[in-house]
Please model this.
Amino acid sequence: MSVVDVREAITGAHREEWARVVAALARRFGDLDIAEEAAAEAFATAVERWPADGVPPNPGAWLTTTANRKAIDRIRRENKREDKQKEAQMLYDDDPPEPPGAIDDERLRLIFTCCHPALALETRVALTLRMVGGLTVSEIARAFLVQDSAMGQRITRAKAKIKATRIPYRVPSAEDLPARVSGVLAVLFLVFNEGYLATGPDTDPVRHDLTAEAIRLTRLVRALMPEDGEVAGLLALMLLTEARRTARVSASGELVTLDEQDRGAWDAALVAEGHRLVRERLATGVAPGRYQILAAINAVHTSARDVRDTDWSQVVALYDQLVRLDHSPIVALNRAIAVAELDGPEVALAAVDRLEDKLADYHAYHATRADLLRRLGHREKSRAAYDKAIELAGNTAETAYLTRRRDQLG
Amino acid sequence: MRYLVSVIDDGTGPATPKEDAAIDAFNDRLEAEGHWVFAGGLNSPSTATVIDNRDGTALFTDGPFLESKEYLAGFWVMEAPDLDVALRLAADGSEACNRKVEVRPFL
Model:
């Protein structure tokens, strides 16, 4: 086996097995810290040994066994120092063994623990990327533009809180499940959005590594909870958004809005998969949640071969449904954008202006106003709105787009 | 595992009779379900006295050690197997006493 093949085998095993190894260790030793460290050591050992010894026939089993041994070594070392104290502080898990077929995948426990509502949202994101995604602390730090040491501390503190407060290592009870699943999805969506609309002046406008990681983790959650409609909805939403990724930023690094995108450049396979998921959810007849409605809106957009073929009445109807579930002013803003296509910019502008109190600091509010004012021929007001939007936008591609539109006002 | 559930008041004042009744009902439930350890309501922060006897000469100071808009109005000590159970109980406790609460595990 060539060096390249071995390296690929290690990368592949890392992608496929990391979460499984960490989850199995966390379950067995009841301690996330030990699980994380032992998993990392096992992969380091693989990097050392596989080139010489060859890739084992079952890499996952090899890694789990090696990690188990590393964990036991560490516990022995520590027990010599602090005796029994360790055991008393171990993560709590009193679940009886679950019947086969129940949602008992250990990775699911791991995800729910990392996304526990007692942790701050940014901490949940970091912990999920580290424990489930297998990203290194510096990779996560880079993704969120913070120092390595700060990110390391955030993760260490989170693990300490999980242990000290006894955040349980299990799939939540049926009573808590819907709220907890939506907590997990919020974390995944945040990772995706940070990749999709990366902020920072020196950051690439689209961070494919983050969108890809978010999709990978959402696929995992979907495989573990195939019956959950919102999980399917979020995956479909991500796929239909990701499908347009390359068409969304021009060669010169400028944002290309939906109406100007080259629809032939969309990823047809991702679009098809997203549509399939949306259809599957529609067929259940169960009332859709937020992510399913957003996915359906994106399905309408991606069904139109030309922007002029967009079924705007369908889009507005879906937004009406969404507004009933989600009272956020951002949803109302997006609804108004669709309304502009159906009822004209004047009606839309009236709706947008009503949101001023809540959205005055949000760049998209000003960008939307600027566009509507431009379409209504209010050039000076439009320019002022573009200025405000440019001032507030954090994404380089968006800034470039808004600047060009403003300068085209003449 | 024991958790301290602190009741945080931000100037609402003493509990109303309706709140008292809801707290009593919640306490009964804690006892019935085996979570009860201890609970108590506290008098206002202005009744506090701070004592510092670290160097052997006790110094008494009038008033709370921390002047703030939010203060501890009472607490529960609860027995719960894990944080999920503690959080659920604390949420019901917050509803019963009509105040914010904070959950912290004992060491």
